[in-house]
Write a structure and sequence with these properties.
By secondary structure, the chain is mainly alpha-helical. The chain is about 70% helix and about 0% strand.
């Protein structure tokens, strides 16, 4: 069983089995439940003791392929909720995990890009997280490859929406308007399938944000359309959603010449980013404010640069951050 003094890193077969045993009442109870669930379709050994010994051997496999018993457990029990939620958290752009330094995110994702998670549909979230890391580093081919692997394993509507929004971002970066629109349309069609709540509103905010970005960077720019998209984001919701709304309105008002309104929205975005505990969004808000308040631009840019350095610290791929 788990020991509280040594928190687990990544997800091994031992951790997976510990979670299943905790959920179902121990290894013996898990063995008999496996027999009952698999009885009609899978020729398990007749002796429960043989099955229990095989599961004990599976515990010692670390992150090696799980073999037949690993496949049976994943087929008949899936991934325990706590492990699935962690994988999902690491794959979502709007989670706090995405605010960690890139090297730290990548190292944690690598620990989960192994069996048992890699042998289950839940592994799609890990591919999405690694695609996001690749995109942040500007490695578009790696991001596309990881996205393709995620799409092949997509395990839920939320996972499919995450993938569609990432696909739209990659297409937008390459100025592929038709592909961007198609991917955003896929995300929009899936969002109503999510239960009402913060997750659905977060994805809706991200969809409207990406649609607004396409309007704002069209030729010619469609700034009023972009502003309407940002205004459609639910107000007074979570800090993440509120940031997306206020930051977008600030940008549009700035470009439309409504400086007073732009400053007000930008300052609100800065506060919401702080409330969300997301440094990358505070950096964005500070850089926007630097354009809007020239008298304070140097100080605001210095604050943004300090945050940027903090987010890059410890990244062996970042030469600027490693330089004295």
């Amino acid at each position: 069983m788990r020991t509280e003094s040594t928190p687990p890193t990544g997800c091994t077969w031992a951790r997976y089995l510990d979670e299943l045993c905790e959920e179902h009442g121990g290894l013996t109870a898990l063995t008999h439940l496996l027999i009952r669930r698999a009885k009609a379709t899978t020729p398990l050994p007749d002796d429960p003791g043989s099955i229990e010994r095989a599961l004990r051997r599976l515990r010692g496999k670390g992150n090696a392929p799980g073999g037949q018993y690993g496949r049976w457990l994943l087929k008949y029990f899936g991934v325990p909720r706590s492990l699935a939620d962690t994988a999902r958290w690491m794959g979502q752009y709007h989670s706090r995990f995405s605010d960690l330094p890139i090297a730290l995110r990548e190292s944690q994702l690598w620990l989960w890009d192994r069996p048992p998670i890699a042998e289950s549909p839940i592994g799609a979230w890990i591919h999405l997280g690694l695609a996001g890391v690749a995109l942040a580093r500007g490695h578009h081919e790696d991001a596309v490859a990881r996205l393709a692997r995620a799409t092949a394993k997509s395990e839920s509507a939320a996972c499919a929406i995450e993938g569609a929004l990432l696909e739209a971002r990659l297409a937008s970066d390459r100025r592929l308007a038709d592909e961007t629109e198609r991917a955003l349309g896929s995300a929009e069609a899936l969002i109503p399938r999510l239960s009402a709540g913060i997750e659905r509103e977060s994805y809706r905010a991200r969809l409207l944000d990406q649609q607004a970005y396409a309007f704002a960077h069209a030729r010619p720019a469609r700034l009023e359309d972009a502003r309407r998209s940002y205004a459609a984001i639910t107000a007074n919701s979570s800090p993440f959603i509120a940031f997306r709304r206020c930051h977008g309105l600030a940008y549009c008002d700035w470009k439309l010449g409504r400086k007073k309104s732009a400053i007000s929205h930008a300052r609100a975005a800065l506060d919401h980013a702080g409330d969300a505990g997301m440094l990358r969004f505070r950096e964005q808000a500070l850089r926007l404010l630097a354009h809007l308040e020239p008298r304070h631009a140097r100080r605001l840019r210095a604050r943004a640069a300090a945050i940027s350095l903090e987010l890059r610290q410890g990244d062996p791929f970042d030469v600027a951050a490693a330089s004295p």
